[in-house]
Structure formats: C-alpha cells, structure tokens
Design goal:
By secondary structure, the chain is of the alpha/beta class. The chain has helices spanning 12-22, 42-45, 76-86, 103-109, 127-135, 145-159, 189-192, 207-219, 252-263, 312-326, and strands spanning 2-7, 27-32, 67-70, 90-93, 122-124, 139-141, 163-174, 197-198, 224-231, 238-246, 269-271, 289-295, 301-308. The radius of gyration is 19 Å and the shape is globular. The structure holds NADP nicotinamide-adenine-dinucleotide phosphate.
C-alpha cells in the first residue's frame, strides 16, 4: 500500500482526492490536514462518508508517508514541499509553485519564491507528456486546470510542425470550484448564478505563462497565447475553445489522426469523431480530457474544443494519476476514465 498524506484536505481539491482514494485499492490515507477544522471528523465537516479525523498542518507526520499531496495555495505549498521532501516523502503539489521553470517568470507572475532551489528538481505533471520523468520524480508540479486541455490538444500538432502563425487564441470557461472553497464577491452564488463573465483577459491570467512555457517547449520555438478565462454558473468543468492556424495542406482527418496516434493508448484522453464537439457533460466527474475539432471557415483555420473537470483531470485526478505512475501502479486506479 502507498501511504499518502493530504495537506489542505478540507479544500475542494483535497475533498476530490479523498473521494478518489476511497476508490483506490492500493492507497492508505495516513493523514489529512485542515487548520480550520483540525480535530473534527471529515464526515462531520462535509456530508460525505470519509471517516478520518483532520489534524493541524503542523502536526502532519510527513515522515510516515510515501507521498504528500499539497492541496494548498501557492506560496504555502513551496514551504510544505520543502518540509515533505526533507522528511523523506515524495510530493505532488497541486499549486503553481513549481510549474514555471524560470524563477524570474514565477516572480513576475506570483511573488518571491520561498524555495527557489527546489524548482530544478520539479517535473511538470502532465502525465501523457512527461510520464517517464514523472515515474522517477520526487517533486511533481501538477498542471494548472486551464492549461491541461489546450496543452493536450496542441502537443501532437506542434510536434508534427503543423501549427502556424504567431499566436494561439484560447477562450476558456470554468465552473466556480476553480476558485477554491472560499467565496469572494465575484465567486459568490449571487454574482455567478444566472450570469456569465470574462475575467483576466488577454495576457493577464497566471495560466498564460504556464501555457506558453509548455507550448514553447513542445514546439522548440516561442509561442504566444491570447488567453481569456470566463466564469460559468456551474460548479465544475472547463470548456476551452482554441483558435489555431494549421498548415493549409492538413485535412480534418489528418488532425484527428494525429490525436488518435498520440492518445488512442491513453486511458484519459478521448478524441471525438468529426462533427461532434466536446461539452462539459463529456468529462465532468471523470478524469477525462475530451478533444474535438471543427473547421473555422477558411483554409488552415481550425477551432479546437476541449473539456475536462477542473477538480479531476485539472487537479486531483491528474495528481492521483501521477502518483500511480510514481509508484508503478496501474495508472487508472481510483480514476474514472
Ligand atoms: N480548484 C481547482 O479547480 C484547482 C485546479 C487546479 C489546481 N488548483 C490549485 O490547488 C490548490 C488547492 O486548490 P483548492 O481549490 O482545493 O483550494 P481551497 O478550496 O481554497 O483549499 C485550500 C486549502 O488549503 C488550506 N491551507 C491554506 N493555507 C494553508 C497553509 N499555509 N498551510 C496548510 N494548509 C493551508 C486551507 O485549509 P484550512 O483553512 O482548513 O487549513 C484550504 O482549505 C491551489 O493551489 C489551487 O490553485 C485548484
């Protein structure tokens, strides 16, 4: 059995991880932390069957686990990763603290990094792309929820040299759980219900440099994104509409073939047939990322639509998938494909 600890277990991604581990035959949850609810049983805090008593983060027996999951905000995660690694635990960080490989970029978009010396040892945890490195890593930087769909869609096309132009437009919509458990004025039910809004448009959301970092690595040349996220009046799910220019010689069947070649052996990436477009219903409550394609009306112009569940493939599901790879387990254990 793999012994796991969850820090930040009373948040949305922590809750999702506990539900995955309830279904996982090879995992024993050794501890789950919450500063707010320390001393309380999980099932007394939330209506759920998880029978574990939450402990304060500073009481976490990090040396007793094989792997610590950090379901905690950026900034806090980096320090916790340092402590977990020092105690001998491997670490999957769901925050952004180790996603950006360039320290200056992290500091431009986030804040001073608490433990910059750990950045070089982190592996970006997009399992389908970095599986071999993830298997041997002690520190995983789980991808952001918005980047995963566009990155999985674009990786095979960039690798094939089919993507043209200077920038890619990504128009993404997320359910409100993407903002975490604590409501703000903009994420409060009264602001979101029966409403729909864009936020942090163009190149102002922190996931823009993360997407650019990865696209640039896949293509071997710099890529720029215009990225505008939106807040949907639903609890979970991300639908991304991606406007991309491809080599005009590429037919729709060729793009779909590139995706099939890359992902037919993957348990969690599903390619829809020509004529179908991804919806949230294709992926919510699963660890799936769904890819679909439509012509944009001019030669070489295409619209890609991807969907995933921000709390599963966009967070806790990807984290558990990475853990399965790190410990040589069946990659699908605990996960719905
Ligand atoms: N929500 C998503 O869809 C999503 C997707 C991908 C990645 N992420 C990332 O995953 C992380 C967790 O997200 P979330 O949505 O689960 O957030 P959340 O609902 O706000 O939960 C975060 C939890 O972290 C705990 N916490 C805060 N500061 C802490 C500290 N200094 N030390 C220990 N625990 C601390 C808090 O619990 P207590 O108050 O009980 O201590 C809180 O419940 C974030 O970094 C987020 O950016 C989220």
């Amino acid at each position: 059995m793999v012994k796991v600890g969850i820090l930040g277990a009373a948040g949305y991604t922590g809750f999702e991880l506990l539900s995955i581990f309830e279904r996982h035959s090879e995992v024993e949850v050794t501890f789950a932390t919450s500063g707010t609810y320390a001393g309380q049983r999980y099932s007394d805090v939330y209506p759920c069957p998880y029978d574990i008593t939450l402990i304060a983060p500073k009481e976490a027996p990090l040396g007793d686990v094989d792997v610590a999951f950090l379901c905690t905000p950026h900034g806090a995660s980096a320090r916790l990763a340092q402590q977990a690694l020092a105690a001998g635990a491997r670490c999957v960080d769901l925050s952004a603290d180790f996603r950006l490989r360039d320290l200056a970029t992290y500091q431009e978009w986030y804040a001073a990094h608490p433990v910059p010396e750990l950045i070089p040892q982190a592996v970006y945890g997009l399992t389908e792309i970095y599986r071999d490195q993830i298997a041997g890593a002690d520190l995983i930087a789980n991808p952001g929820c918005y980047p995963t769909g566009p990155l999985l869609a674009l990786h095979p096309l960039l690798k094939a040299g089919a993507v043209q132009g200077e920038r890619i437009i990504i128009d993404a919509k997320s359910g409100v759980s993407g903002a975490g458990a604590k409501p703000t004025t903009t994420t409060h039910f009264c602001s979101v219900h029966d409403n729909f809004s864009a936020y942090k448009p163009g190149h102002t959301h922190r996931h823009a440099p993360e997407i650019e970092q990865e696209l640039t690595a896949y293509a071997g040349q710099p890529w720029r994104v215009v990225f505008t996220p939106h807040l949907l009046p639903v609890s979970r799910g991300i639908l991304s509409t991606i406007y991309v220019s491809l080599d005009p010689a590429w037919e729709q069947a060729q793009v779909l073939d590139a995706w099939h070649n890359a992902y037919d052996a993957e348990p969690f990436v599903h390619v829809l047939p020509e004529g179908q477009l991804a919806t949230l219903a294709h992926s919510v409550n699963t660890n799936r990322c769904v890819l679909s394609l439509a012509p944009a009306g001019a030669p070489g112009e295409w619209i890609i639509v991807t969907s995933l569940d921000n709390l599963v493939k966009g967070a806790a599901g990807a984290a558990a998938q990475n853990m399965n790879v790190m410990f040589g387990l069946d990659e699908t254990l605990g996960l719905v494909s």
